[in-house]
UniProtKB/TrEMBL annotation:
<protein>
    <recommendedName>
        <fullName>Glycosyltransferase 2-like domain-containing protein</fullName>
    </recommendedName>
</protein>
<feature type="region of interest" description="Disordered">
    <location>
        <begin position="454"/>
        <end position="477"/>
    </location>
</feature>
<feature type="domain" description="Glycosyltransferase 2-like">
    <location>
        <begin position="226"/>
        <end position="339"/>
    </location>
</feature>
<dbReference type="InterPro" id="IPR001173">
    <property type="entry name" value="Glyco_trans_2-like"/>
</dbReference>
<feature type="compositionally biased region" description="Basic and acidic residues">
    <location>
        <begin position="454"/>
        <end position="464"/>
    </location>
</feature>
<dbReference type="GO" id="GO:0016758">
    <property type="term" value="F:hexosyltransferase activity"/>
</dbReference>
<dbReference type="Pfam" id="PF00535">
    <property type="entry name" value="Glycos_transf_2"/>
</dbReference>
<dbReference type="InterPro" id="IPR029044">
    <property type="entry name" value="Nucleotide-diphossugar_trans"/>
</dbReference>
Length: 825
């Protein structure tokens, strides 16, 4: 029987012990959405509930320091979850005064436990980088390969191993600084392996700006390449960047320097740069508008057959253009090439915790100017993040095979304090505005491929082709006081929030101004970031709604929390700027339900989160009277509104169907997340005799199917199309209790199916559904097949429930009441 971990509330104990998610999935999600007070959750998983986080950190510190630790003290530790705990502690350590000591101790202990259990090491890059950051050189050398990175194989591990060992002997910052000559040999090794000229540096305060090679400038002829270099308030690295282009072995190069309206005091560095060569032209923006506006100005005056980009504080290897142009010559299909870069600081130190030292270099883009600009037009007018959009748009329009990234280190990418993007990334965390932008432009690109949309933004009428976050546009929110913001988990996999697009459409159609905020429910934690469902992105594209992140200065009349679990842990205090007039929580499942394994939630903890994040009392809309009573009995202090199922059912135009004899039975198990998935054994137990009825299964990809059953996966067919094939649909109970599949039952009823649902939904659906366990499924099918009037009667109850209780009008009326009556603090 599970026991309580000190400081960890019971609902998080349930989650930790449920098996629904791994510690690695939880840690990534906790960091991605900056959940606070979360370390004990992962510590429980790491020690099977034996230790608190502080106790595990103490054990790790003792092991690192060589203090005696008995083997039995390490016995409860679980290596994969220990690694996840180390990763979580690492991510939470980022900040102005980052101290990675505890994370390094935990990584070292995780490696020891993994070796004990014979399991694979995890988070190797973070492990090595964290130990280097705290000066543990022996550990780094012991656990890294000393070989030079294999650039041809593109082995990421070999690159950060090489970077760490080279940084140890860095003469300017290394823990064991070697002579400049010794360090240069190590640094140049991967360049030598690829037949690239070696680099030399000088011992100055800014050695990056002293880089030199012995490559012969201008030794290769070919068509003109126009390199656009946008600059704002430059340092002397502008001279370094410009020289690197003038010194290319590819001789026919023009450098178009675009000053993004730098303030006074930089005239001298611009004059000095212009004086380097008559191949350098200077253009000044009339006002500061960001790097992409500056790039577009530069591209408008470019003369070259090939156009390209470089940042004003980076250095291109003298053979970069030659190598990238050679790729064009080898493959006539190519319209664009890129290369990779070594990412380093001004003192040539490469290792930055949480980052990769060798990566694709977006500002190395070279493209066929007339073909690309003629079809796509210029860059999107953003303050940042438009590099990736443009590169991916080229690939969308011309084909993936038309864009090639060379797996060669052809640039030094300088990590400067003034970089616009430097603080946008941490372990598992990207700035929310960037994530919103990426999801929006990739949806637009998908529509370019599938619908033939014009691949320009803005279009001929000056309209943006897709929505962009004001933070990245450099503007403010057009609507800071929307009527409603809906907080939801909009990913394609979880079923619990899959009806949100219909709800938002209904509100918009009724004239309400609606925004959307997102976070991931912990029971659906994932290591990878997933973009929203297509129906949600369609609403964004058509202006029905827009992203309104919790860190935005928005003051909606009502924040509707679509899933109670989205607030079972608070967000960090400095990540919430939204100030809703009232916070209303939709509760469509019981706070505690079923035996273990289960996921649960605790109303007083949700209320405490609302007060901490928004300084408001929580209000509740329970789906049933029973849920409302359970919320009240838990000791909440907020208002509990009359029961109402806050869902919208989009009923099919012609849902009635005639049944005669053999029925089509659908088993609905569409979720991609264990917390909502039925066990294979439970599904098999529901099967009737295959010869007597036609049985079909809807499930997530890569799941084991059932023998003799026609299986469809959610990447092959939409749920609606699947339900249209079926007469009766069974929606079984998940193997992990506490997350009943309400939405699939509603969607199947709305398509005209008779639904046999999880008994946990009885209080919600009432007579609109039949229930698993009341009668054997095969017996129910036989009765319905033998008497079509019984089928029609049950179908009529289901459709009446959808038309009346789940109509768009009823939903809008419930929400409109919230926006027109006052809330309380």
């Amino acid at each position: 029987m599970s026991h309580q971990t000190p400081g960890l509330p019971p609902h998080l104990v349930d989650l930790a012990d449920s098996g629904a998610v791994s510690a690695a999935e939880l840690s990534a999600t906790l960091l991605r959405y900056e959940y606070a007070d979360s370390v004990e959750l992962v510590a429980r998983m790491a020690s099977h509930g034996t230790y608190t986080a502080e106790q595990i950190i103490t054990i790790a510190s003792d092991v690192t320091a060589g203090r005696p630790v008995v083997d039995r003290a390490l016995a409860p530790l679980h290596a994969p979850s220990m690694y996840a705990l180390a990763y979580l502690v690492l991510g939470e350590a980022f900040g102005a005064h980052a101290d990675f000591t505890e994370a390094a101790d935990l990584f070292a202990l995780s490696r020891r436990v993994a070796d004990r259990d014979g399991v694979a090491h995890m988070y190797d890059r973070e492990d090595i980088q964290t130990h280097l950051a705290v000066g543990r050189v022996d550990y780094v050398r012991q656990h890294t390969s000393q070989a030079n990175p294999d650039v041809a194989a593109n082995d990421e591990r070999s690159w950060y191993h090489w970077a760490a060992n080279t940084d140890i002997i860095n003469p300017f910052r290394g823990a064991e600084p070697a002579s400049l000559e010794t360090w240069q040999r190590a640094f140049n090794a991967p360049f030598v392996d690829r037949g690239l000229a070696t680099m030399s540096f000088e011992a100055t305060a800014t050695p990056f700006d002293t880089v030199r090679t012995d490559a012969a400038a201008g030794s290769v002829d070919g068509p003109l390449i126009s390199i656009v270099m946008p600059v704002y308030a430059p340092t002397r690295s502008l001279l370094t960047a410009t020289r690197s282009l003038l010194d290319q072995t590819w001789g026919n190069v023009e450098v178009i320097l675009v000053d993004d309206h730098s303030p006074a005091g930089h005239e001298e560095i611009f004059e000095e740069t212009r004086a380097l060569s008559d191949r350098v032209s200077y253009h000044r923006m009339p006002q500061n508008g960001g790097a992409y506006r500056a790039r577009n100005l530069g591209l408008s005056v470019a003369r070259g057959e090939i156009a390209g980009i470089q940042d004003g504080d980076d250095w291109s290897h003298p053979q970069r253009l030659e190598r990238q142009m050679a790729a064009f010559g080898r493959d006539e299909r190519l319209v664009a090439t890129l290369s990779k870069s070594i990412r380093l600081h001004t003192d040539l130190y490469m290792t930055r915790v949480g980052s990769v030292p060798f990566a694709k270099n977006a500002p190395s883009l070279l493209f066929r100017r007339e073909a690309v600009l003629g079809r796509l037009g210029p860059y999107d007018l953003m303050r940042k993040a438009a590099d990736t959009e443009y590169i991916e748009r080229i690939a969308t329009v011309f084909g993936r095979e038309a864009v090639r990234t060379l797996k060669e280190p052809l640039a030094l990418y300088q990590l400067t304090d003034g970089s616009l993007s430097r603080e946008d990334f941490r372990p598992s965390w990207h700035r929310p505005a960037r994530v919103s932008y990426h999801s929006a432009f990739r949806h637009w690109h998908h529509r370019i491929r599938t619908e033939g949309l014009e691949p320009r933004t803005p279009d001929a009428e000056g309209h943006r082709a897709f929505p962009a976050p004001p933070e990245l546009e450099g503007t403010t929110y057009a609507d800071t006081t929307p009527d409603v913001v809906v907080l939801t988990d909009p990913r394609p996999g979880p079923q619990s929030g899959s009806g949100v697009a219909g709800e938002i459409s209904a509100l918009h159609a009724a004239g309400l101004r609606v925004g959307l905020a997102r976070t991931d429910a912990l029971r659906f934690a994932s290591r990878r970031r997933h973009y929203p469902r297509a129906d949600v992105l369609d609403l964004m594209a058509h202006g029905t709604t827009s992203w309104m992140t919790l860190d935005a200065p928005i003051a909606p009349a009502v924040l509707v929390v679509r899933d109670v679990e989205l607030l079972t842990l608070p967000r960090s205090s400095d990540t919430v700027a939204m100030t809703p007039g009232r916070v209303v929580i939709v509760a469509d499942r019981m706070p505690t339900e079923g035996a273990a394994p289960r996921v649960s939630w605790h109303p007083p903890h949700v209320e405490a989160t609302v007060r901490r994040m928004f300084n408001r009392h929580a209000e509740w809309i329970p789906a049933t009277e029973e849920i409302g009573q359970a919320i009240w009995a838990s000791g909440v202090t907020g208002t509990i509104h009359p029961p109402r199922l806050m869902e919208v059912a989009a009923t099919a135009p012609f849902p009635r169907r005639h049944v005669d004899g053999r029925l089509v039975l659908g088993l609905s198990d569409p979720s991609g997340y264990p917390a909502e998935q039925a066990s294979r054994a439970e599904l098999a137990a529901l099967l009737p005799r295959i010869a007597h009825h036609d049985v079909r299964l809807l499930q997530a990809p890569a799941r084991a199917t059932l023998p003799g059953v026609l299986a469809f996966t959610t990447d092959m067919i939409t749920p609606s199309a699947f339900y249209d094939q079926c007469d009766v649909v069974v929606v079984p109970a998940p193997a992990v209790a506490g997350s009943a599949l309400l939405r699939p039952a509603i969607e199947a009823m709305a398509r005209g199916c008779v639904v046999i649902a999880d008994p946990a939904l009885r209080g919600v659906l009432g007579t609109a559904a039949l229930y698993v366990g009341d009668d054997p499924v095969e017996q129910v099918l036989d009765k319905l097949a033998a008497d079509p009037s019984l089928f029609a009667e049950q179908q009529g109850r289901s459709l009446a429930f959808c038309h009346n209780d789940l109509s768009a009008a009823a939903y809008v009326a419930a929400v409109r009441t919230l926006t027109t009556t006052g809330g309380s603090r």
